[in-house]
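Here is one record:
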Amino acid sequence: PAFYAGDAPGGGLSLALQRADSSWTTLLGNLLFLQGLAVPTFGTNGVLWSLSYEAFFYTAYALAFVPLYRRRGPRLAFGLGWLLSLAGYGVLVVSGDMRWTWLAYFGLWLLGAVIAEILATNWQILYVRWQFSLAILGLMTLAGLYGRLPTALDDTLWAGLWALLMISLLPASRWTPLFYARRLVESLRPFARQSYTLYLFHVPLILFLSATYLSYSPTLPGHFGLVAAAAALNLGLTSLLARWLEALGRTRSKAVAIHNL
């Protein structure tokens, strides 16, 4: 439900308004990306929690991971990053303190750095067929178990299997399932042109869809089919908005570039 549910009109919004914190200290904490760790999210904008994670990940990457990578190499840097992430996950499970997700999820964020590392250094990828098969089977299993696993474990498995799937698609292969899977991924490239629009509007659109559903039903069912439907509607609606919003951004960028010349 976290993918499409939120503080929608009805009891959820009323409760959010009652709990809303719009104090100066909360505002300052949010500006310093400390929401969820030292202060609550500002007002009713609950999705601000994700920005604090991003700030932590980028800061840790620049100040700790990159220096270690340059001095000791990628194996130690990635290995230590995942070891600390695993330790954070262990403390999270034992203590139940969600603030440890900052450390636990850093390993998931590093998966993107691994893919970039593979592309930049031409790492040799072994057992591609087994990786692809495991990723597909795992993702299908997770879809069937949606809403039944602890959040942190669910997030970890989804991120890990998606990364494994992406890695298995990197090398060229004539194996038929891999060939068609790569063709499918390549067909999604046009959606990159609406990435900023999707970033801006996906949460408001999901909350609107949730509110619409809740106007006919008292609760939102935890079903993966609704997640897929919400994602499809998001892509469709943002593609319409992107026609003018993304074009406006490109026009503005060109104007700035010409002015700087």
User: Anything to note?
Assistant: Confidence is low (pLDDT under 50) at residues 1-11, 253-261. The longest helix spans residues 224-260. DSSP finds eleven helices and no strands in the chain.
